[in-house]
Amino acid sequence: MDIKINRRFNEKELPDMKTIKADAKKIASDITIGETLFMKKYGVRSEAEYKRNMMDAGKIMKHSVIGWNSWSVTEDGIRKVYDSLVEAGSSIDRLGICCDWIMGVPEEYRNRFQASGSLIFHSQEEWNAIGQVVPVNPHLGDHMIGSLNSVENVTNGLTAGVTTIGNLAQYFTYEYPGLDMEGYRTEDYVKAMAIMGEFKERGVCMHCNLDDGYGAQFHDVANLLGWAKLERYIAEDLMGGRVAHCYGNLFSDSMLRVVFNRAISMIDKYHTPGTFVNGNTIDYGSSLPRNYAALTSYAIADVACQLTYPSGYAVAPVPYTEAIRIPAPEEIVEAQLSMDMVIEKAPYYARYMDWDKINADAELLVTGANVFFERVMNALDDLGVDTSHAGEIAAVLKAIGPEQLEVAFGAGGREKEAMRGRVPIRPTSIVQTIQKIENDALAKQKFENEGPLQGVNVVVGSTDVHEFGKEVIRNVLRKAGATVFDLGTSVSISEIADTLVETGSNIVCMSTYNGMAYSFGRDLKAALADAGLTDTHVLMGGRLNEAMDGSDVPIDVTDKLIKMGINADNNIDTIVGTVGSYSGISLQ
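Predicted structure:
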């Protein structure tokens, strides 16, 4: 079996499952789940109980992400959103509290790093306040389970009364540069799952956003669904918990959103209510009118699906300014009110949708998912992985990576000329979008000969988990003839410097999204200077912003990057010419 396993530690050195579960049971015995205002108002003991009640009543639930860089500002924002919606005759069921990446780092190491501008809890009192501001269910996703601080965050979150905590997917993609603690992280990850499993009868669920993990990197939706089965196997069958999946960020095909909801419900043997269907962020950009249209296009499909086949997923209208800046409370309210009109009109669409075709397409995805799941499990067994040990499975899957998994075990038929050598049963929206952007960008190029960047080495990567921009850059440069060294997502600065030396390249292109453009650019330039790589050309694109000088909201840092000597044109249409100019190649 030609599989490269990029191990960062020896998974056989993990404690056995009996020891991990015993530790988890002991920790869980000291946890008392708090009672939130939401629980008191609706007379429930968990969000899952509330969701089942709403499913029975035929009510569509709504979600939004919220969070700024201090608890006081976040608390004020929560009140503004809730009060404004009540005043408008509307409501919201759940709020995802957006925490800073530093929350995924054990407290004793946090002084080594700079936060990125999101919320940090500094005391248990602040944790406890999450559910005591307004009677809306609090949700914790980013940098909780799957981080370097899984057990601590689960303990604090449950104590605060949060009964839906994630994000299982982030173990595979979110990194914490400067802390090489992969063995510790893996043990902490599965132990946190076991703690959550101790409260499953109470309705406690583990959130997992497929689009935040390896799921975002599959090209075939059938394999993405198969990956969801692997996540369920680890968290439910082995660790005894319940998984509440989430998706939507990277689904721009409105009907595919519906098909996938049906498919993922078909593989959920415990019928656990999903967390939320996130809005389609692929189609959001700087044009607010286009963003308005994008919201209604995906929202109608999401609502129609929940009306016809209730599965507990809240619908999530992404604020129209999401691609530009962290939305203000007023912008969150605006999107929620837009969703209210969609909920009102969606029944007219739902009754004319071809549900037989939708379910048939979903069943085809399930068939492919089962093929992928079985192939991967058999391969793990052949590789000597203990398939009854959650930590071993998670660690080795992470070390193999989604591209190898899809190439070797994908459900689609083999085809030499296809991306990753297989024809997808159903291509993901991200693949369709990447191909369109690439084709549009290449069509605008002025070079006449094939491969004008022949002989040019370029290093590319993403500063965070979002790989969309990086994929486009990589593929355009490769089609222009460059030799591209793709470092993947959540790339460390030391990895960039090492790769530049190893490949003899003096060009690096970095995509960024999560509000860290300035600090990453600054630290990268400093590291390159220390390594004697001052002739390196750095290009950065994506969301070029960061919270600066105590600001609660990230600001555009394009000018600051340019002053550092970083190319911040942020233009895929000109990148071939720019890279060529750095190598003395003229495309005129």
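Summary: The chain has two domains: 11-357, 446-582.
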